Amino acid sequence: MNKLLLKVVLYFFIISSSNLAFTQDEEKLPLVQILEQIEKQYNVKFSYETKTIRGISISPLYPELSFSQVLIHLKTATQLDFKILSKRFIAITQTQKLIQRLEEVVVINYLTKGIYKTNNGAVEVDAKAFDILPGLLEPDVLQIAQNLPGINSVDERISNINIRGGTNDQNLILYEGIRMYQSGHFFGLISAFNPYLTNDIRISKNGTSALFGNGVSGTLTIKNSDDIDDKFKAGLGSNLLSLDGYAKIPIGKKTEVELSARRSFTDIVASTTYDAYFDRIFRDSELNASSNINTVLALDERFLFYDFNAKFLYNIDSSSKFKINLLNIYNNLDYNQIFTNTDNNFQETRSALNQVSYGASTNYSKVFKDGLYTSAEAYYSRYNLNAKNNDITNQQLLNQENKVEDYGLRLDISKTIDNSTVVRGGYQFNEVGVTNFEDVSNPNFTSLLKEIVRTHAVFGETERYSKSRNTYIRFGARISYFEKQKELVMEPRFAFNQKITDHFRLEILGELKSQSITQIIDLQQDFFGIEKRRWQLANGESVPLIRSQQISLGLSYNHNKLLVSLEGYYKNVNDITAQSQGFQNQFQFINDIGSYTVTGLDFLINKRFNRLSTWLSYTLSDNNYNFDNLNDENSFPNTLDLTHVANASFTYNVNDFKVGLAINWHSGRPYTRPLELQNLNNSSIEYTKPNSSRLPDYVRADLSASYSFKVSKGVQAEIGTSVWNIFNQTNIINRFYTLDTEENIIEIDNRSLKFIPNFSFRLNF
């Protein structure tokens, strides 16, 4: 498949290059005329010198764009600076700032207002213009992603995003350039990223830029604002789990500090929302195992989470910038039980689970007069997962730790050839260290493993439009050298978009990618079974480098507020380990190296009216493993395989009131049944063919609503409410089997989240 994909890449590169060379100019309008139209439509006023815009002509803009999207397009097409002076006035000046990205919006209001698709296949979210999505109270990137075709979470954990059949650890998540190894609070049920300072969110399923590496599935990048405001801005809010706040604090004309913080009050007050989340996470965990064999007399749990973000901006001069970003994410659980054991003696267990991440990045960028842009970035990311279990019954003390430290340095350079072409290149160095520690008493056992992988990568790509701007192509490659494995990996990438007619577009995306770090499960009860996955580095032997190849072909129709898109894809991921797949059948304690292959079809139809947006998305996919030593037939269904996934939604917006309703459905996950006739002399369970059975279908309805109103001059308020699983549907999201003390087979069902109401109140000033 590698050779085939390389041939396809080369073929489309030649074809598109020919198209780029021979297409003709389409009709453009003078910028002054475009500005006059915008002023009337959005009730704004542009201030500029005539010479600044003289001689500039651009293609007409989509009439449905939000005003913030309009400014993005104007900056891209003109390479001028548009500075917002007030709610109505915008100043236009010449600037040396390089517009590095050439991509344009090809689908606006993708699903709902504030979400749009670009011509390189990525989905971008304008958090400021974001409207509403069913079941959501805020524009969070991890929640928004799961509303896109081909992206879901099979276990309902927001941070466990499965993109086209891949595991969540195969996704590259970058927050201000910092590689994230933890993305959730409440052990995955709540996103760890505060959305209220977020400015740029980008989600790529395929055709990823060559600038990004070390993630074989999707790429999610999150950036806060890089613009310095003239006025102080802040906001405060609360829901039934936490309090949060943010502030943009200008310090002079060249400097600004951005702050955001959130803290739960779950360690003080337990709401119905908290009870539902707690029940979902701990219902089938090891912490509740003692309840099955003992009588619990008292339970004392203390859970809290918080996150903190800080960003420092300094505009050194008109052509250079400096910024620093800091991040801290924290989860902590103390869980104590007092119970009577089988001998009617009082016993107490004290358990603790701590999960924390630290991140920092610094960036310096410089623009030169000849269209040359350079930047240097360094980052540090640290993740710690610690568990302590004091088991009085078995007189055993267990300590576990999983730690990741990631250092990175990145140098970028790009050159704007003209308004249609940009060439980029750069170098990136990473050093990732992973430590796994385990200490057990009775019997005494201690294990400490630490591994380090250093990676050097060079990358380059060209982004180009045809003269008519009907054809767009981005072609590039990333070459990585992994020191420990002594492997050199070449990863070509491309994105091709062709406007066929006024309303039809063709999109072709392809990529090769690799990854040197993955999550594995040693034992299902590790870290109490709550965060049982631990990070591990490739070692060239039992854990090889993971490699992927993907290609997709899409066709879309967009006219009169009707969008219909169809995208077929093929994805193959090689050199995965059985331990990374979390088997709970006959392969639970066996390791092997294999692959999975996904073929699928993503379909979306979206009809937008003046105040109403409705859509139906559907994904049909076939996801299969291939392990040479695990199964006689080699191929069997992937644990994450959902053959059918569908979502029907609508959102309605009238004045300052917004409401959204959605129905989510997918076919059941595969699981493995025990044989009806067991060998009585065998102390382990004997199973049927792996993943040969299916759980019942999953159905869930969600609702959300919000209302904004003015409190006083300069103070805006918003109240919101959401209900997850309106009808309290009981869904089984996983099924496995175990033996009790008498070696009887017990069936265990992991059930989905119950009916969960939430309420929020915010003030922005």
> Rough shape?
globular
What would the CATH topology of the domain at 233-418 and 434-465 and 472-764 be? Maltoporin, Chain A
Mean pLDDT: 87
Question: How many β strands by DSSP?
Answer: 45
CATH-defined architecture of the domain at 233-418 and 434-465 and 472-764:
Beta Barrel
User: What percent of residues are in strands?
Assistant: over 45%
- Return the structural class: mainly beta
- Rg over alpha carbons: 27 Å
- Class of the domain at 233-418 and 434-465 and 472-764 in CATH? Mainly Beta
Given the structure, what is the number of helices?
7
Poorly predicted regions: 7-26
Measured as a percent range, the helix fraction is: under 10%
CATH superfamily of the domain at 233-418 and 434-465 and 472-764: TonB-dependent receptor, beta-barrel domain
Q: Biggest β-sheet, characterized?
A: 22 strands, antiparallel, barrel
Distance between the termini: 55 Å
What does this structure look like?
There is one protein chain. Mean pLDDT is about 85; it is low at about 5-25. The chain has a 22-stranded antiparallel β-barrel. The protein has a domain at about 235-420 and about 435-465 and about 470-765: Maltoporin, Chain A, CATH 2.40.170. The protein is built from seven helices and 45 strands. It is globular, with a radius of gyration of 27 Å. The protein starts with a helix and ends with a strand. With about 775 residues, it is mainly β. Helices cover about 10% and strands about 55% of the residues. A hairpin with a 2-residue loop joins strand 32 (about 545-560) and strand 33.
